[in-house]
Structure formats: structure tokens, C-alpha cells
Amino acid sequence: MTATVSVDDEQMHGVGTDVQHTEAHPATLTHRPKLAGMPKRPQPEVPLDFPREWVDFTDPDDAEHVVRADLTWLCSRWTCIFGAGCHGIVRGRPDDGCCTHGAFFTDTADQKRVRRAMRELTPETWQLHDAGQESWTERDSVGDEHNRKRTRVVDGACIFLNRPGFAGGEGCALHALALRTDRHPLQTKPDVCWQLPVRREQDWVTRPDDTRVLTSTLTEFDRRSWGSGGHDLHWWCTSSPEAYVGAEPLYLTYGPELVALIGQPAYDVLARLCAQRIRQGLVAAHPAGLVSGRRTC
């Protein structure tokens, strides 16, 4: 196994949506209380273009799989601040977080997993339970893809989002279900929800000697990752210093998700390389983390 580290200004394009620490997960207010003195206006976001530090290594379990990881992102102290300062992606709807537009399913298996979890919800734990019995999915377009199935949007947000004042707890009903039943949220939520805001892209690459490897790129799901509409979001957490307040680096808090995306052997290598890089000192730390004062090194 070999590993190489590089620093560049590259911004990846496209959206990659293809297992017990919960700090980095989109949270529910049942376990993340609102903070006193929550800022009324978002802090200025950092620009999208800045130097990033990357590491490339071969998966020890698969010689034809190469992982390319964004150390600037994975070594940052980003954490989900839903209910603790999140401003929401739509102006005037901070309690929606990033759940305003519903979640597009990646495949049939994704939808079936969510359906199984949905059947465990009750009117006491899911505010829109009755509406969900009628229909909990709908079809819409995303990018160049038309007639894609997603979770239904009701009254301006995902049908699984429990709204402020609901006795069963605010936030994602599927996320809360996982916490109540000692499961990880990736076992109950749509793929895009548990992956966000980590982004994985996979491409087969032909090398100069004509050998081919599958390259998995792990990076930040920034505004560009939403497509052209991402620039119109009211607020987005990965560019905001307000979200870089985690107690641990992202590669640790998002460990189960990263294992699900690249496998345990590859994650073990990634974790070791991230820890080593933090000890040595990042050349290109995330600028939002520098603003917040929670840099990793």
C-alpha cells in the first residue's frame, strides 16, 4: 500500500450519493437542545475556492480500489448544529435545517430500507404519520434526471421532519427512531441524508500502463455540490464558521459513514493517515475552521 499527499485548489464537480458517534449527524432536538443566545444572522461564509490537502492510497483489501481523500475537510472540526445555531437552507425556515426539499432515493434498496423504518414509526413519534399512510413519496426532477422518487414534501419540508412544538420531539423522525432503538441513523435514513455533508464520487480511471482502478473521492459537500441552485441557498453549513465547533475531527465523528462508503480496511488506513497529518500539522486547514478558532493543529 502506498500513500501520497498533495495540496491543490481543485474543486470537484457533480454530486456523489451512492457503521457510535452521533455528533456529526443531522440531529434531532430530542438530543441536541437549542443553545441560548443563538445568532440571529448567519456569520459570513468562507469562499468556495481555497487550497485543499489530499491523500491518495490503495485499499488494502482491494488492489483495484484507490481512495482519494480531502484531508482539509476530513481533519476539520465540522459538526452538525441543527437546533444549536443552524440557519436552514431556506430563509425564514431555520427549523427545517437541510430537510426542506425532501430526499431523493439513490436506488430501490435505499427506498426499501426507509420504508421498513417508516413502519416502526407511530403517531406519537412521527408528527405527519397520518399523511404518511396516504403517501410518503413523490416524484420530481433533480439536475438532468427526471421523474426521480423522493420523500414527499408537506407544508414546505420533508414529511419525516417533526416540526417545532411536536410532543414527540423536533427533527427527523427517522433519526430519532435510530437513537431510540440503539441503531445508527444510516440504518434508518435515506442515503443522501446520512451521507451529507460528506460527498463521495466514484470513477474508473485508466492508468498510463492501461491498468484500471476504481477511484473513490471523499470530499466536502459544498454549495457547488447542490448544482447551480446551491448558490441560491440561504445558508450552508460547510462554508460557515459557526459549524466548525466539533470536539473531534470529522474523520472520527463520521467514522461509521466513511466505513459504509469505502469499507473498514480502507477507513482504518484513512484514520491513521488523518491522525498522522494532524500531528504533523495541516498545510491547508479549512478556512472556516480557522475563523471559528477550532483548527485541528
Summarize the helices and strands and which ones pair or pack.
Elements: E1 3-8, E2 52-58, E3 65-70, H1 71-74, H2 108-118, H3 129-134, E4 137-142, E5 145-151, E6 153-154, E7 157-158, E8 161-162, E9 171-172, H4 173-180, H5 191-195, E10 198-206, E11 212-220, H6 250-253, H7 255-262, H8 264-280, H9 287-292
Parallel strand pairs: 3-11
Antiparallel strand pairs: 1-2, 2-3, 4-5, 6-7, 8-9, 10-11
Helix pairs in contact: 7-8
Task: Please outline what is shown here.
The chain is an alpha+beta fold. Helix content is 23%, strand content 20%. 43% of the residues are buried.
What does this structure look like?
The structure is a single chain. With 297 residues, this protein is an alpha+beta fold. The chain has 2 domains: 1-88 and 196-297, no CATH class; 99-195, no CATH class. It has 9 helices and 11 strands. The radius of gyration is 19 Å and the shape is globular. The protein starts with a strand and ends in a 5-residue tail after the last helix. Residues 9-38 have low confidence and may be disordered.
- In percent, how helical is the residue content? 10-25%
Range of strand content:
15-25%
Q: What is the CA-atom radius of gyration, in angstroms? A: 19 Å
Q: Segments where pLDDT lies below 50 for 5+ residues?
A: 9-38
Task: Supply the number of structural domains.
Answer: 2
Secondary-structure element pattern, one letter each: EEEHHHEEEEEEHHEEHHHH
Structural class: alpha+beta
Tally of DSSP β-strands: 11
Number of helices: 9
Q: How far from one another are the termini?
A: 26 Å
Q: Main sheet, how many strands, which sense, barrel?
A: 5 strands, mixed
How are strands sequenced across the largest beta sheet? 1-2-3-11-10
The average pLDDT score comes to: 88
Shape, please? globular
